[in-house]
Amino acid sequence: MNNTTTPTTRIAFASFIGTAIEFYDFYIYSLSVAMVIGPVFFPDSDPAAQALNAFLTFGIAFLARPFGALLFGHFGDRIGRKTTLVASLLVMGVSTMLIGVLPSYDLIGWAAPALLCLLRFGQGIGLGGEWGGAALLAAEYAPAGKRGWFGMFPQLGPPVGFLFATGSFLLLSQLLDDAQFRAWGWRIPFLASAVLVIVGLYVRLKLAETPVFAKALATQQPTKLPLAELLSHHAAPLVLGTLLMVVCYALFYISTVFSLSYGVTTLGIPRPQFLGMLCIAVIFMAAATPLSAMAGDRYGRRPVLLVAGSAALLSGFLLAPMLGSGSPVLITAFLSIELFLMGATFAPMGALLPELFPTAVRYTGAGTAYNLGGILGASLAPYLAQQLALRGGLSWVGGYISAAAAISLLAALMLRETRDKELV
User: Fold this and answer.
1) What does the pLDDT look like over 207-252, one tens digit per residue?
2) Helix segments in 234-361, DSSP class H
3) Cα 27 to Cα 252: distance, rounded to the nearest angstrom
4) From CA 187, how far away is CA 185, in angstroms rounded?
5) Using an 8 Å Cβ cutoff, are 371 and 238 in contact?
């Protein structure tokens, strides 16, 4: 960064780059679940059981994420945002890199999936602490009237991280055949994470503490037990924030992990082609993010969530005819619609969740709501979608999306507008 860069620009970049790296780490595993995790880490006696077991390991990280939010939130609310964010990035980076060197089931038997589950839990712990701190960095530094815009930068991390993750696997699919990819090629994106983490740590270590937290620390003692304070005095916004996140997660993981698995295995679309379709679709998610953030600053968070959530509810009816068509054009259009709506429902959260909680419990509250939403909306989404598709067909999977959207819509209807709330 040069000397002319404003502090807020540095903060926006730091909040963006950290979430981009951590979500890259998270998504390379998500994509690997749909391609290689089952055959590499589970017995090959039953391909269907392999796929279901792989999807269950996917869900472990979502169960871990609230624990990460509570752990890092506790220290983030007591000692500050900066140190905590550095630690969360390290936990995620080390867990991801170790997955890249983990021996397969053929080499060490059941120790392989056991260690995989442990490292996947570590990924969840790291990501659980990441988002809340990154959102607080942006929101607590934001100029007046632009909190939604600055809160958008952590929200840009997921689509950019996903684009890098998808692009890395797409590149490998062009350079390696299936046997090489399954034998060792899939490990390369995990090992490459180490380089990205070093970049993220360099940026994070140059940060200063947020002015909102520094002011709070100067005027009052930190809360001894942020979780106890959160549950006793701020349970209602915690529940609302959790439910608001459900539709974001359901849209994303049905559109990516489930759709990739279904498109390749059931529809017979070549993996490189489907990854290319996802790369196109995630651009729509990235485009929706600033548009939704600006609308949130202008019209309020609640109206944006009501409009986007209603559209998401209706979009569930498109899944069976568009994804089931087998047409690459229609499937790409469907994926683009869903990820655009994901960006539209997701972008306001960078400002809204921090606005729901006071400074003393903001890290714990925002991070916990965000990650509890992940348990409800995403932890079992690919697994349940797989079961619904097998037992009831794709229309049932579309119903899953509509139900998730209805839950978040009800929460948005109960929400009080937070746009003009003071964070100090």
Assistant:
1) 777 777 777 777 777 778 889 999 999 999 999 999 999 999 999 9
2) 235-253, 259-265, 271-299, 301-315, 319-323, 328-346, 349-355
3) 11
4) 5
5) no
Q: Provide the 10 A C-beta neighbour count for residue 157.
A: 24
Instruction: Give yes or no for a contact between 128 and 72, defined as CB atoms under 8 angstroms apart.
Output: yes
Cβ distance 152 to 22 under 8 Å?
A: no
Q: Could you report how far apart the first and last alpha carbons of the chain are, in Å?
A: 29
The amino acid present at 253, given as its one-letter code, is Y
**Which one-letter DSSP state was computed for residue 347?**
T
Structure tokens at 165: 């993750």
Residue count of the chain:
424
Residue 408 has pLDDT above 80, yes or no: yes
Count other Cβ atoms within 10 Å, centred on residue 179.
9
| Both tokens assigned to 153 | 């930068």
The owner of tokens 């959207």 is: 405
| Cβ–Cβ under 8 Å, residues 154 and 204 | no
- DSSP-assigned letter for residue 422: -
* Tens-digit pLDDT profile for residues 143-197: 878 889 998 999 998 889 888 998 898 899 889 888 898 889 999 999 998 888 8
Residue 260: C-alpha distances to residues 180, 344, 374, 423 (Å): 20, 22, 20, 41
| pLDDT given at position 368 | 92
Residue 409, CA distances (Å) to 75, 132, 292, 314 in order: 32, 22, 16, 12
In SS3 terms, 162-192 reads as HHHHHHHHHHHHHHCCHHHHHHHHCHHHHHH
Residue among 119, 89, 111, 104 at smallest CA distance from 29? 119
Q: Where are the domains of the chain?
A: 7-414
Q: Give which of 198, 176, 200, 302 is closest to 244, Cα–Cα.
A: 302
CA 272, CA 248: separation in Å to the nearest integer?
26
Q: CA-CA-CA-CA torsion for 158, 159, 165, 166, nearest 10 degrees?
A: 150
CATH number of 7-414: 1.20.1250.20
Cβ neighbours, 10 Å, residue 333: 18
pLDDT in tens, 309-357: 999 999 999 999 999 999 999 999 999 999 999 999 999 999 999 999 9
Reference 15, options 302, 417, 366; nearest CA is 366
